[in-house]
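Minutes, project check-in

Agenda point 3 was the complex the collaborators sent over. CS summarized: two entities, 232 residues total, and the question is how they sit relative to each other. Sequences were read into the notes so everyone works from the same version.
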Amino acid sequence: QSVLTQPPSVSGAPGQRVTISCTGSNSNIGAGYVVHWYQQLPGTAPKLLIYGNINRPSGVPDRFSGSKSGTSASLAITGLQAEDEANYYCQSYDGGLSSVVFGGGTKLTVL
Amino acid sequence: QLQLQESGPGLVKPSETLSLTCTVSGDSISTSSYYWGWIRQPPGKGLEWIGSIHYSGNTYFNPSLESRVTISVDTSKNQFSLKLSSVTAADTAVYFCARLNYSSGRRVDPWGQGTLATVSS
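CS then shared the predicted structure for the full assembly.
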């Protein structure tokens, strides 16, 4: 069981907007530790998608955005495209565990 | 462009030690801003951080694995290595090496392509 909780799956039609939640606690996200998001296409290594809660690395489309509130964070994807079909992971730090922690991952299906 | 490449045996026997090496190219591993780490992913499952090392030798480990993990760095070869002892089938996973920015919330970027390590007799 992961320290950060994500829905196992989400889906949406092309062009739609989807959000993926990442729920933590007062020892990680709620303690002020930042959240990062990664996209993992099938058979490949994860790729940094959002860092520091809201920032996009160069090359990441602005269709991807991040937010954080309280003990949770969210990844939003607008204008859904077939190429967005992948697994998405959130990551933070847990001060109580003294450990880098990941969410369990969310599989995005583009219908 | 910074690149990381994992190498090591793909098959390890139960109770033995899994050993992997990550070769860094495109930049020096002796950069004060970064740590270098290992993350694994069992087949069909999520990501688990194993541990991180600074070129100075300072290390951090996942408490759940700490008793079995050794991470070392060889700055002359621009490499860092992982040793996981007393392995069982539960340690079968794709092992990724990566750079971690501890000044920026420990974000992980970039990642190596990963190498599958299977524990089986």
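Noted in discussion: The beta strands of chain A are 9-12, 18-23, 36-40, 47-50, 64-69, 72-77, 86-94, 99-102, 106-110.
Follow-up: revisit at the next meeting once the mutant set is ready.
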